[in-house]
Prior knowledge:
The chain is of the alpha+beta class. Helix content is 24%, strand content 38%.
Amino acid sequence: MKRTLQLVLLAGAGAALAVVAGVAYAGMSRPNLLRNPAFEEGLDGWKVLALQEGGEVKAARDGADRFAVVDTRGVDIEDRNPYLTNALGQLVRLEGEGVRRVALRGRVFLEGEGGTALVMLKAHGADGRSGADVFRFDGPAGEWVEFELSAGDRPLDAAEVALGVYGRGRARFDDLDMVEGGPRGYEIPRAALAAAFVLLALGLALAGLELAFPSKKG
């Protein structure tokens, strides 16, 4: 009986690991919805939004690293929406029904003091309503910082990304990744929880068997 219990536990552990690995792989293999997300092809796929005199939006590089730059140091900041002027944007149409949430992650680098780097993820609902999540970064300057956003709680037909700077400043943006559903990696804790329930159920079942058929000691 003891040998049988061990084999069942091993089989259950293997099944739990398979659940974790399968769900994690499915989540990590979701396609990036953005065109040219790392700016390897300049600003192809992106739209410069209402560039004003003194502003600059461009693709740049530092060695092998490519990224987008938004520079508002020479712009009149009065009455300016930083998501719609001197900014960079991309609109993605979502195919099929049932898409209810999108997630965005990436990196931001603020050059020098002054200004706040902004990233907005906006989810457009099929019912005409929309929701947004925003990341704001005002320092420390001189280092890359990762961000993660998510938006949407209803059927969606489009998602939009905007990169900008509030005030007078210069920021870099790179390695953007937008996917349907929650952020990449969120599937692993969920799968691990499911696996834990599988093992708990097995443990309870085996405990019941042990009580019903106790081992005989000679």
